[in-house]
Structure to design on (651 residues):
């Protein structure tokens, strides 16, 4: 039996890559899901799965068809890690079936929360929902038996004995076998670079994309130890834990639990990276490092043993104390990124963060006090419940952070876009949109939505307004936050001097950003809607107003002293004027805020104050998950509706 595993890009089919895989400030993440699937298949007696790294190679339709004609596979696995890859899954499945109509196409990853649409609107035969390793081996066992018996027709009932899969049965009904098992900690494996190389079809140079020289990164260089002469120069991404201890309402959560990787395997892997791949810097790519304290401290000791400078890419506020951070710093920790999300307790409760704004301050300020760089760009706007009051509260926290650094707000926040919430399938935010009729109820309508959010980023230009706020308010949230940040900073820094050491480091960071042509262009022409997929016509310069506001208004300390009732309306309606010009005179492709905002700007869909009033509700009541559940109880749902909710709600 022949099997092939494929990585899936997120770019819209037929478009060029926004940037080459060799570009960007971070190394490409190793295909951890695919290597896990192959490792578990091998452990269960199956031959090595062939690997076709479509994401890295970005081949044409003709090249993909040629590959699958030459590599006839009985089972093809598509790893749709993110739910914004629907159009690529549809494209790949169609090409694979054209080349080999008998192949069983299996799709896994977060996209399968929309299994009903994927199975009905693409050539995918089976969706794996949740952790995929055990289900993948179950499917291989089924297909092995099926092929040995020489049957032409798939026995759906037999196939559904495999836990964790969704299929469309002979009666055209969606059936889900329930969530399956996940691997134990000791079975999780680090990605083999030799195996990853097999997916490159002879383009061995592409393996270098999994590494980056440290002088092209922005995080490690904030630590003066990065310039030690005896340190090896390359950076690499690594996962040391899997899962999360929380279930934020904007986050996809396809599996339960929190797992840690085997430390003995980690030490062997790290030594190989140092000795054979010139690695001296590690990005710990976990979404929730440090929730297992014993494991985290052991990791720090191993990092120190191999002289690594390492950065935590995801850690939960409140998980690590100041003493924990001090210990990690001594063991080579150079920076940390916390999931801040908002400076408003109201929004944190709606997001179900289960920590307070004080927890955020404690975590961030501990790092700053230790002279440890902390990423401060983890703010997000636009969840249901967002208002000018909550955006202003986020801005106030930004100003407090800048004052703690002792560095003007513009050095820290001006060169990054504020994130706006994306309603990803498989989240309470997505379910909220469906309940309000903002996402269509039919398969055709959901497919249109999946097309709309294909290849989007968390930028304002891609925002779909589930909040119900008027467009002028939506456009103003980020600028309002920056205005408030500048006001707060100037107030707190009165009579104090700028911290020259941190200022120098932030200038160093901006210098590194400037070496990236994409970031450089973005700094030259700051875009109100975030990073654009299409080339911007600079002669039209549709973002002149935004550029002016960012360069001369929102970070201006003199303007920060003016009354809000003068400054805020001016900024708000200047942005609205720019929006109208863009909408009616400068047509932009793939701009969701233009395509959808008018239909969604409905005050009646906004969350009511009484639903989130702390004096009348509990923290659990204020979670969007609870709000969605209460509204769902009022709906008359069919059996299929309940199955769909199982898929989108997670285990």
């Amino acid at each position: 039996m022949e099997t092939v595993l494929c990585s899936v890009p997120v770019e819209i089919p037929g478009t060029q890559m926004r940037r080459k895989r060799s570009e960007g400030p971070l190394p490409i993440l190793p295909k951890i899901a695919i290597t896990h699937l192959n490792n578990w298949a091998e452990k269960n007696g199956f031959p090595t799965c062939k690997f076709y790294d479509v994401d890295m190679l970005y081949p044409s339709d003709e090249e993909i068809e040629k590959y699958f004609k030459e590599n006839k596979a009985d089972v093809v696995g598509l790893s749709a890690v993110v739910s914004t890859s629907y159009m690529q899954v549809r494209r790949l499945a169609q090409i694979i079936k054209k080349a080999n109509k008998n192949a069983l196409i299996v799709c896994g990853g977060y996209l399968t929360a929309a299994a009903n649409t994927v199975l009905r609107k693409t050539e995918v035969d089976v969706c794996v929902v949740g952790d995929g390793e055990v289900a993948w081996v179950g499917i291989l066992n089924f297909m092995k038996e099926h092929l040995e018996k020489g049957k032409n027709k798939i026995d759906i009932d037999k196939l559904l004995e495999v836990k964790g899969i969704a299929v469309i049965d002979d009666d055209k009904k969606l059936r889900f076998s329930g969530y399956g098992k996940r691997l134990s900690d000791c079975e999780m494996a680090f990605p083999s670079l030799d195996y990853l190389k097999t997916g490159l079809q002879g383009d061995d140079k592409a393996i270098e994309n999994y590494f980056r020289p440290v002088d092209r990164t922005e995080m490690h260089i904030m630590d003066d130890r990065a310039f030690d002469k005896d340190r090896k120069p390359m950076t690499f991404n690594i996962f040391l834990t899997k899962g999360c201890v929380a279930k934020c309402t904007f986050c996809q959560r396809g599996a339960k639990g929190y797992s840690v990787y085997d430390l003995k395997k980690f030490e062997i892997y790290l030594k190989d990276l140092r000795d054979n791949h010139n690695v001296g810097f590690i990005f710990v790519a976990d979404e929730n490092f440090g929730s297992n304290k014993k494991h985290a401290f052991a990791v720090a000791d191993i990092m120190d043993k191999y002289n690594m400078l390492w950065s935590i890419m995801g850690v939960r506020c409140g998980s690590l104390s100041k003493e924990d951070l001090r210990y990690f710093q001594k063991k080579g920790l150079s920076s940390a990124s916390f999931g801040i999300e908002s400076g408003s307790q109201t929004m944190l409760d709606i997001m179900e963060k289960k920590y307070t704004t004080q927890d955020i301050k404690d975590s961030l300020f501990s790092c700053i006090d230790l002279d440890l760089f902390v990423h401060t760009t983890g703010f997000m706007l636009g969840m249901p419940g967002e208002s000018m009051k909550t955006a202003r509260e986020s801005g106030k926290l930004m100003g407090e952070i800048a004052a703690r650094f002792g560095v003007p707000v513009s050095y820290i926040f001006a060169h990054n876009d504020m994130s706006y919430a994306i309603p990803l399938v498989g989240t309470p935010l997505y379910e909220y949109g469906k309940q309000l009729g903002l996402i269509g109820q039919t398969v055709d309508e959901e497919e249109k939505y999946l097309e709309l959010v294909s290849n989007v980023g968390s930028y304002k230009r891609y925002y779909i307004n589930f909040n119900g706020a008027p467009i002028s308010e939506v456009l103003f949230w980020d600028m309002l936050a920056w205005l408030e940040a500048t006001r707060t900073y100037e107030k707190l820094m009165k009579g104090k001097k700028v911290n020259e050491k941190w200022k120098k480091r932030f200038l160093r960071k901006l210098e590194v950003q400037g070496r990236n042509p994409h970031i450089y262009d973005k700094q030259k022409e700051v875009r109100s809607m975030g990073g654009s997929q299409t080339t911007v016509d600079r002669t039209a310069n549709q973002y002149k107003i935004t550029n002016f506001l960012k360069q001369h208004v929102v970070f201006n300390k003199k303007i920060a002293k003016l009354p809000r009732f003068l400054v805020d309306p001016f900024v708000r309606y200047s942005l609205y004027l720019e929006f109208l010009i863009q909408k009616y005179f400068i047509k932009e492709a793939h701009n969701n805020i233009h395509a959808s905002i008018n239909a969604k700007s409905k005050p009646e869909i906004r969350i009511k104050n009484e639903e989130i009033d702390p004096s009348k509700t509990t923290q659990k009541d204020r979670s969007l998950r609870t709000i969605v559940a209460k509204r769902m109880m009022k709906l008359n749902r069919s059996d299929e509706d309940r199955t769909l909710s199982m898929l989108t709600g997670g285990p």
